[in-house]
Amino acid sequence: MKLGETKGPGRRSMPARIDWALAGVLAVMAVGVSACGSSSSKTAASNLPSKIGPGEGQLNLVAWEGYAQPEWVKPFEKQSGCQVHAKYAGSSDEMVTLMRQGGGSQYDMVSASGDASLRLIDGGDVTPMNVALVPEWKNFIPQLQSPSHNTVDGKHYGISLQWGPNTLLYDSKAVSPAPTSWAEIYGSKYKGEVTVPDNPIQIADAALYLSKTEPSLGISDPYELTEAQLNAAVSLLKKQHPLIKKYWSLASDEIELFKNGDAVIGAAWPYQYSTLIADKVPVKQIIPSQGATGWADTWMLASHAKDPNCAYKWVNWVSSPKVQAEQAISYGETPVNTKACPIMETIQKGSCGVYHANAPASYFDSIKFWKTPVADCGNGQSNCEDYSAWQQKWTEVTG
User: Fold this and answer.
1) DSSP labels for 266-277?
2) What one-character-per-residue DSSP string does 325-355 give?
3) What is 362-390 written as a DSSP string?
4) Full-model pTM
5) Under 8 Å CB-to-CB from 191, ≥6 apart: which residues?
């Protein structure tokens, strides 16, 4: 395995094959077709694989940093014969771009968050998957079996993986008193020592903060913003700009900022916190009083994937209770598989509760999960700003 690899996958002499069943036809006989055909995801929606064939020998992933760790990748490679090559992406925009390179055949799968998954579906970049070939799917929490960010018209364009909140990370020695609000990254107290993701979806964090601190703006959903609401969030972020030490692209960028003392407070993922704690850096993380945005990630299969059998083997591997538990603790996120909780406790006592694996549905519902901003405001009106406007505004912020 080559973690963080930037080169494309190697060539193979023959395309792999996978057996497919004609969807909607109640028959037991399946026919074999090339896995590297040119059909779009909409055509593929009428066909689903009926079984997983022999692995092709490799698997090329676009993933969030920390999603292809040796602890669970090495055993998978040994068990499946599929060598994993992971390209880490720093944002959902980068993931979408990577999945469209080489005509969409350079990578087999992507660990897409909700602000990328629908773009990939609408663009025909990913194809439906057969959840019947993923036995552990039935053990997923109900909210992530068929969520709207990966399931369209009853078709599953991927298999849910893990979920969690975006947190406020701070150096417990340098930041005093302990923060309770996102206001700390918008005020001048830590000027030049603040860091946030370099990602247009960061606008939603500002919008969430304003929804609580300036209710007159009428923000009810941080991803459904009118022009005036978007401008208010952008104005706050422009005022924040002089406070920023660096807009980080990769999680490892933020980790280094905290290790070196260049940043003492910022927006983060639990992965940074877990990594810094393991390196004995004095950090803490909280969900501030205004709440938090968050992610629910999905392993999605490229429409022109060259290694579909290895892809299905991979989603089965990472959906198992054991690997779900390992990744949850390694990254600091919540598994989708309800059977992971007892295993988490054997790895790290108390971790099931710490990472909310046994939390009630109300905790899940309290997080504002990433989704792609669209013109439809969800209230019968179409006067919200779409993602292209967010991208333009983010460029103005970071300029």
Assistant:
1) EEE-HHHHHHHH
2) HHHHHHHT-EESBTTHHHHHHHHSTTHHHHT
3) HHHHHSEE-----S--SSS---B--HHHH
4) 0.81
5) 242, 243
What are the pLDDT digits (tens) for 52-102? 999 999 999 999 999 999 999 999 999 999 999 999 999 999 999 999 998
What is the residue type of 395?
A: T
Tell me how far CA of residue 33 lies from CA of 21, 22, 44, 319, in angstroms. Answer: 10, 11, 12, 26
**Amino acid, single-letter form, for residue 153:** D
Q: Measuring CA to CA, how many Å separate 338 from each of 147, 148, 346, 352, 384? A: 16, 20, 15, 10, 36
Instruction: Tell me the C-alpha distance between 106 and 36, whole Å.
Output: 11
The confidence score (pLDDT) of residue 46 equals 54
Closest CA to 365 of 208, 211, 161, 144: 144
Tokens at residue 186, please? Answer: 């918008």
Whole-angstrom distance, CA of residue 273 vs CA of residue 172: 12
Report pLDDT digits (tens) over 8-39: 323 222 333 333 332 332 233 333 333 333 34
Is the separation of the CB atoms in 100 and 15 below 8 Å?
A: no
Residue 311's Cβ-count burial label (10 Å; 0-12, 13-18, 19+) is: buried
DSSP code, position 123: T
Per-residue pLDDT tens digits for 145-198? 999 999 999 999 999 999 999 999 999 999 999 999 999 999 999 999 999 999
Name residues whose C-beta falls within 8 Å of residue 43's C-beta, 6 or more positions apart in sequence.
none
Whether the Cβ atoms of residue 131 and residue 157 lie closer than 8 Å to each other = no
In sequence order, the 6+-apart residues with CB closer than 8 A to the CB of 372 are 114, 115, 116, 118, 119, 223, 387
User: Using CA atoms, how far apart are residues 107 and 97, in angstroms rounded to an integer?
Assistant: 11
Question: Residue 158 carries which side chain, given as an amino acid letter?
Answer: G
Cis peptide before 135 (omega within 30 of 0): no
Q: How far apart are CA 356 and CA 333, in angstroms?
A: 8
- Coil vs helix vs strand at 105: coil
Give the domains, in start order, of the chain with CATH numbers. 2-163+295-359 (3.40.190.10), 167-291+369-398 (3.40.190.10)
Cα–Cα–Cα angle for 331, 336, 338, rounded to 5 degrees: 115
Task: Report residue 29 as tokens.
Answer: 């006989």
